[in-house]
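With this grant's support, the team has encoded backbone shapes as discrete tokens. A representative record is reproduced below.
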Amino acid sequence: CCAQCSQTEKMIQIFEELVEKSKENGAAQPDLITYTTLIKGLCKGGQMDKVIQLYGEMKEKHMVMDEVLFNSMLNGFAKTSNIEKAMEIMEEMQKLHIPKSNYTYTILIGLYSNAK
């Protein structure tokens, strides 16, 4: 799978193809699962600017978001030691009433234990 291989360029190309086809002929549009999968792969590749861009698109589309999406982004910011962005994501979770799981707390503990 592209996400596991960190072939982020290919993932983005496939995603953009899906977006184009949905515009052209009303084919399936990217949904929460599509975005979350792409975001998770981008986080693995450390492409957090692209993650922020995609998250912005999701917000513009008023997509319903879930804990898996937020945990993926939190994990990405934790791996890049970006405490500030991680806290922004936590605030978004609270605003949207997304519950925190044990995994969410584990990511946060790791974030602070690895902070420099």
